[in-house]
Amino acid sequence: MYNVPNENGRFGDFGGKFVPETLMRPLEEIERALEQALADASFRAEYMHHLREYSGRPTALTFAENITNELNGARLYFKREDLNHTGAHKINNAIGQALLAKRMGKKKLIAETGAGQHGVAAATVAARFGMECIVFMGEEDIKRQALNVFRMKLLGAQVVPVFSGNRTLKDATNEAIRYWVQHCDDHFYMIGSVVGPHPYPKMVREFQRIIGDEAKEQLLEREGKLPDVVVACVGGGSNAIGMFSSFLADDVELVGVEAAGKGVDTPHHAATITKGTKGVIHGSLTYLLQDEYGQIIEPYSISAGLDYPGVGPEHAYLASIGRVRYESVTDEEALAAFQWTAKTEGIIPAIESAHALAKAFEIAKQRAKDETVLVCLSGRGDKDVQALMNYLEGASEHAFRR
Amino acid sequence: MHLDDNMFIPFLVAGDPHPDVTIELALVLQAAGADVLELGVPYSDPLADGPIIQRASARALKQGMTLPRAIQLAGKMRKKGVKIPIIIFTYYNPVLQLGKESFFALAKENGVDGVLIPDLPFEESEPIRRLGAETNIPLISLVAPTSKERIEKIASQAQGFLYCVSSLGVTGVRDTLPEEIHEFLAEVKQYSRVPVVVGFGISKSEQVQVLKAHCDGVVVGSALVQKVEELSDRLLQQEQHALDEFRRYVEQLVAPLRDVDFYGGVKEDEREKRAARAHSLSAGEVARGSEAAIRVDERH
């Protein structure tokens, strides 16, 4: 029976709470509130109500008929998280955490963001639930993602530029944690992925498992059987955990796809499980990209959402026990899948999701026609269109990194 | 601990602006009456630190500073005459990469007296506390204003000294400290068997004056690191005046702890007294701490 994390927040060796003492009691409070909320049918009902009425769930399961025909292999299904309000799976978690914050009497949210997707989701729920929201974002990402910055401001959030480190997601997360240490008495820190100290990896999983629960039911209805393979992209890994959780006990092959950037044999990648080693980042023991002295190395990916030097501790655990296979996809392969999906199925996926698609296409091609491959299409790619245009016109691929 | 009261515990980032300068600064601090030195190991992602120590860490990392080198720097300090206890302040990840056992072995070899790991809370610290007890290099525990019912469990098992975080937030210089700090310190002292010191935000002699009666010592970090930053170029040129200026700054800051007039420096007999008791951190208090730990183990 799969039952992690334990009461110490450990997924096997991974996870835990590696934070300053100041945050220990706030974490204990969140843990207690979370356990009570998860056991409370009315909390569940309220969460489901907002997912339906506000985010538009359940999201569709789309049979990728044209691509299936062209590949001439397994039948491909897309779980359409891009059809959520705000355009990605991030809103599932943001709604869940905002409701928990409300339950705890906290009316001020803190969030970190890289591409701006989680920041927008946090700002959105803050507006909806009448809360304040402060979003930390690397100065470099702010420059590259002006539109999302403006969206957050439109939604009433305060966006704080972060000037430390390389001024991207890792640094924004550091700064959000520092701000939280100072304001933990009346603020709720809304982490955007299955990372961070316990109970965050578990909490975000519980608020994202709706993806897998719905997809499983939808696929059973359509195909009358479970999928043979489930594929999802992994940065921090929240859409993947949400998808995988519902299939862990089943005889289903699970594949997580990391960003190989310019190749896992170059220094320019974000393939944390493939190439990383055990260590502590942002309060959790997991795999991370680091040097021999334990200094964290800046990752690289064309996709800002996958451009993170750590990975959720549950993914580290699933890799260590061999339950999930982690592979990687390069910038180029992801870009090809991005364009092909747009042209062939009329869906513009997020560049993050395009990593999962690229791997899913490769797998489907090798499989029998009566098999099915389910892939999590975690978000829509409108945010990436300008960057793709620049890229195709020969501008730097850095245009993509937000 | 024989370092019983009115302790002054300065913090420096190892290698900022250069490892040799760090040794010079440590000697100046010792001469200015420091009782314990906290030697900070620079880290790429120091999430308990504010901008001043972040910048210092970045400068030190550029100098090639690493955890093993910082520990070896403590060894060099010993050879150059630093006699006061040295506590290594490091984030947990570099310790994991060096290896927990190797860390303590290297620390022992280099005359390190304690270790402080800001992102290793009590619940995760058992292996480090055990190794600390075995090697007489105690893990210094921290309590924070949010600790509340956690204070008793942390304070009662503290070794060396107990570090109280003055206020919510990261390291830095603060104009004011929270009013509730006295109640917080009183509660901590009620449970602690070791000296209770206060850090985070202390940057003025007025603050030291106010805190003096409520704790056994103060940790001053960012204020000193900021001074080092200000003097950085001159320190790198080995300007004696820069070291003198640093010393004057330190002495006025901690004057309230000393039986001295404002500009007088520490009296000679007082300094000798301090030097004599300086190395007793590991000898006296750690032994007591280990006994306490053993007793706790027996209960379980």
Automatic annotation (TrEMBL), chain A:
Modified residues (N6-(pyridoxal phosphate)lysine): K90
Cofactors that this protein relies on: pyridoxal 5'-phosphate
Cellular component, GO annotation: cytoplasm
Biological role stated in the UniProt entry: The beta subunit is responsible for the synthesis of L-tryptophan from indole and L-serine.
Record-linked Pfam families: PALP
Keyword Amino-acid biosynthesis belongs to the record: yes
Molecular function as annotated in GO: tryptophan synthase activity
Phylogenetic placement of the source organism: Bacteria, Bacillati, Bacillota, Bacilli, Bacillales
Summary of subunit composition and partner proteins: Tetramer of two alpha and two beta chains.
Pathway: Amino-acid biosynthesis; L-tryptophan biosynthesis; L-tryptophan from chorismate: step 5/5
Top-level taxon: Bacteria
Record key words, sorted: Amino-acid biosynthesis, Aromatic amino acid biosynthesis, Lyase, Pyridoxal phosphate, Tryptophan biosynthesis
Catalytic activity: (1S,2R)-1-C-(indol-3-yl)glycerol 3-phosphate + L-serine = D-glyceraldehyde 3-phosphate + L-tryptophan + H2O
InterPro entries listed in its UniProt record: Trp_synth_b_CS (IPR006653), Trp_synth_beta (IPR006654), Trp_synth_beta/beta-like (IPR023026), TrpB-like_PALP (IPR001926), TrpB-like_PALP_sf (IPR036052)
This enzyme's EC code(s): 4.2.1.20
Annotated ranges, domain Tryptophan synthase beta chain-like PALP: 56-379
HAMAP family (UniProt xref): Trp_synth_beta
Protein family: Belongs to the TrpB family.
Native source organism of the sequence: Anoxybacteroides voinovskiense
Protein's recorded name: Tryptophan synthase beta chain
Gene name, Swiss-Prot/TrEMBL: trpB
TrEMBL record, chain B:
InterPro entries: Aldolase_TIM, RibuloseP-bd_barrel, Trp_synthase_alpha_AS, Trp_synthase_suA
Protein's name in the database: Tryptophan synthase alpha chain
Subunit description: Tetramer of two alpha and two beta chains.
Any single Gene Ontology cellular-component annotation: cytosol
Coiled coil location: none
Organism expressing this protein natively: Anoxybacteroides voinovskiense
Function per UniProt: The alpha subunit is responsible for the aldol cleavage of indoleglycerol phosphate to indole and glyceraldehyde 3-phosphate.
Reaction catalysis annotation: (1S,2R)-1-C-(indol-3-yl)glycerol 3-phosphate + L-serine = D-glyceraldehyde 3-phosphate + L-tryptophan + H2O
